[in-house]
Specification:
Length: 259
């Protein structure tokens, strides 16, 4: 599986974008412009067809039709507002006929949610419960390309840990996963690469590169993950050589081993 953007432009929002992503990668999306971010995710999914350039999957033809997103799942923030009057199980039966119900139940249980919740209306549930159900449906659909828009919103820390484990497991199935999140600590723990969105796009094959680019960081004013901030403080004050770590507990262990 591979996705290629070749000189893609869309209105005045995105200009001359070119990059490629191979399977088995989780890609973080960073942008301070919500409209640009939304347009980019919609482009990947196939909701926009009046763009210029080429968007290729597995080097296939440039597809600008509803078939373009048959093998994708798009977890949108806006789904909350669309579901409130619907019963969970009815929504599943209508919209996802190929759903693996056994896997759905397994993922729900991993989020500490009983399968009985499927018989409830979305309006009876908390926003956190809704998010966990939508994430569970996404994993049970077994799509090859997953697009997640702010997935940790309304999730408690333990549920975020569960989500990270599930995403890493899906990555091993040769999928491509795009994630936008305002939670920089979550992104650091789960992603492999970064795409920074402005009108121009910068693709960082190494996720640490964007956080080490002080000029860009100051310009776009994004938050640096706490683990990297702590590492930078230790480096500047002690000179201890430390590897990059995604989890602050692993970083602390490295510091103790070095002193």
């Amino acid at each position: 599986m591979e996705i290629k953007f070749e000189n893609v432009s869309y209105k005045e929002k995105l200009k001359d974008i070119s990059f490629n992503i191979k399977s088995g990668k989780i890609v973080g999306i960073i942008s301070k412009n919500d409209d640009i971010k939304k347009s980019f995710l919609d482009l990947i999914y196939g909701l926009i067809d009046d763009y210029e350039g080429k968007i290729l999957i597995n080097n296939g033809g440039n597809k600008k039709s509803i078939n373009y997103y048959e093998n994708k799942f798009y977890l949108k923030e806006e789904l909350y507002n669309e579901l409130f009057s619907c019963k969970v199980i009815e929504d599943i039966k209508i919209s996802l006929t190929d759903l693996d119900m056994e896997k759905l139940i397994d993922v729900l249980i991993s989020f500490k949610i009983s399968k009985n919740i499927l018989e409830k209306n979305y309006c009876e549930l908390s926003l956190g419960e809704i998010k966990k159900i939508l994430i569970s449906i996404m994993f049970a659909s077994d799509k090859k390309i997953l697009i997640l828009d702010n997935p940790t919103l309304d999730l408690d820390p333990k549920s975020v840990d569960t989500l990270i484990k599930l995403l890493k497991n899906e990555k091993r199935k040769d999928k491509i996963i795009f994630i936008y999140s305002s939670n920089s600590d979550f992104l650091l723990r789960v992603i492999d690469e970064v795409i920074y969105l402005n009108k121009k796009v910068i693709h960082f094959k190494n996720k640490y590169e964007i956080y080490e680019n002080k000029k860009l960081i100051n310009k776009i004013n994004i938050s640096i993950p706490k683990t990297l901030e702590f590492r930078n403080i230790v480096l500047s004050n002690t000179g201890i050589k430390l590897l990059h770590r995604d989890n602050i507990n692993d970083l602390i262990k490295d510091i103790y081993r070095s002193v």
